[in-house]
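Side project, low priority. Logging it here so it doesn't get lost.
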Amino acid sequence: MANTSPQDLDAFWMPFTANRQYKANPRLLVAASGMHYETQDGRKIIDGTAGLWCVNAGHSRQEITEAVSRQIATMDYGPSFQMGHPLPFELANRLVRHTPQGINKVFFTNSGSESVDTALKIALAYHRAKGEGQRTRLIGREKGYHGVGFGGISVGGLVNNRRVFGTLLNGVDHMRHTLLPENAFSRGIPKQGAELVSDLERMIALHGADTIAAVIVEPVAGSAGVILPPEGYLERLREITRQHGILLIFDEVITGFGRVGQAFAANRFGVTPDIITTAKGLTNGAIPMGAVFVSEHIYDAFMNGAEEMIELFHGYTYSGHPVAAAAGIATLDIYEKEGLFERTLELESYWEDALHSLKGLPNVVDIRNIGLVGAVELAPRDKVGVRGYEIFNHCYWKEDALVRCTADTIAMSPPLIIEKEQIDQLIERLAKSIKAVE
């Protein structure tokens, strides 16, 4: 597609994209290596988003390429229903070395959306297995993003993801989000807002704890524009859920695999949920794959009855796909060999200082950061999202930088291999774009 025409782009209905706007002036990437993409017109674009929060080890890693090539030549596909092959077992054993103690079972999916719906189904089935089938209520949070399945958008709290898809799941409530104006320009974890966890206590008082199956939150909300948990918030959430027999699910599709400074946000915050959902960085974005990490006590609750009985009637054709598993193992090798989880912590202060140097630029109203995640929030114009999109567009076309816009928030999550000079370069290019767009 060297000389792309409108007809070349017509058949593909693009996801989460203003299709008519995009196809009038397409941004086409044709190659990638390390920290950079290459565009159709030959420009080198610094990747400030790790693709879509997923290419944590940098692009086109030879180790992953070779592992995938070997596996697809050896066995392209093997079923996981009543059959097995070695790689998902090996990958699962490797993965649970990085999860918090007690979370040691892995159910493989193909995406973050599938991981969330799987986690919700496991939570409901768990309570039924324990003789508490009346626990059917699910609680999410405003501004939460949990993928695009019906379960995920039901517990999610982004209005545009929900408004046109009917009534969704019944029996779902939402706590308030933790994005507070008094925490503007906080460096790292904000000080105020832990009291918002009282929303859960109010819901327990209203519905009865014995009707609530699970609470699902992102430890750090990514898609809504990098919303951080106030000091003590997650700890108190864990206390309340444990006290009332409610499962706590951490959606770590974005925060997993080193993004916030340890393997998972659960490790970073020292808060162990019952279930963790993941995807994205699991295979460095090379092959679609997700995983749900489950506490042993949940798994054990299913392991009753006759041995020939299927304990959980759930799964996917591609659960534990051999090629995806090969990519996952090779990705873990890179993370461990290069110490990329630890490297995030080493760069965190430098990244924070660089981000907060943007304070005082035109229309910048907040800056948020943790690990190698950052957000720059801008004052909206009369129409929300216009300024954010124009800065994103200017970064791409004029400054050769890829960032992400959510309404009027610019979010960044660069590959964990980024160097300090590349941080400087990325922030400088964003600064130029902010100044250029009034």
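Brief comment: Residues 152 and 284 are 23 Å apart (CA to CA).
Revisit when time allows.
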